[in-house]
Amino acid sequence: MSNNCDVIDSSAVTYIIENPWDVSEYEWNLQDKSDLERTHSYILNKLKIAENGGFSRLWKTTDQKPIAILGCLKIGDKEFETFFIASKHMQDYTLKISFEMRDMLREQSANFKGYTCYLYSTSNHPNQMKWFKFLGFMNIPERDSGSNRYFEYVSSIK
Question: What is the dihedral of CA 98, 104, 109, 110, to 10 degrees?
Fold first, then answer.
C-alpha cells in the first residue's frame, strides 16, 4: 500500500473514542471507560506503524468533527492489516464514507497485486457481512478465532 497517511492527531482519536459510533463502541469495547487510555494509545501506535509503508485516512464533518479513521499497516512481506473506528457522526455519513473507502481500497489494490489485506472483526451488527462484502472483504471462516471473524480483501482488479 502506498505511504499516504493523513495527519491524525491525538485529539481526533480522543474525540472518536469518547463519542463512538454504536458499531465501534462494541467492536472496540468502548463501554469500559477505564480502558479508553489503552485504546487511545493502541490506535496512535497503529497510526504510527501505518506511516511505514501503509496508509491512513481521517474523515471529518463539514465543521471539522472527526467521523472515522481507516488505517492500513504493513505487517509482513506482502501482508497488510486494516482497522477502522468511527464516531457517532458515522450515522450521518455511512454511505459517503463507505463509497470512498471502497474506492480507496480498489485504488490501493491496483498497485499491490498478490498482497493480502485483512482484518478481524467482533461486530455483531446485522449488516456487517454485507458491508464488508460491499467494501471488497470476504469472510474466511476457517481463519476465524473465537468471536473474531477474519475478513480478507479480495481485489476486483485482476
Answer: 130
Q: Which residues contact 47 (CB under 8 A, 6 or more apart)?
A: 5, 8, 13, 56, 69, 71
DSSP 87: B
Does this model's pTM top 0.90? My answer is no
Q: Which three cell numbers stand for residue 38?
A: 489503552
Tell me the C-alpha to C-alpha distance, in Å, between residue 75 and each of 9, 20, 26, 39, 96.
Answer: 22, 27, 25, 19, 29
Question: What strands lie across the sheet with 55-60, from one edge to the other?
Answer: 4-5, 55-60, 66-76, 79-86, 116-121, 149-153, 137-139
Residue listed under C-alpha cell 492489516: 81
Q: Where are the beta strands (DSSP E) in the chain?
A: 4-5, 55-60, 66-76, 79-86, 116-121, 137-139, 149-153
Distance, in Å, from the CA atom of 46 to the CA atom of 4, rounded to the nearest integer, reads: 14
16-51 pLDDT tens trace: 999 999 888 888 888 877 888 899 999 999 999 999
Strand pairing of 116-121 and 79-86?
Answer: parallel
Question: What's the full length of the chain, in residues?
Answer: 158
Show the 3-state SS of 47-85: HHHHCCCCEEEEEECCCCCEEEEEEEEEEECCEEEEEEE
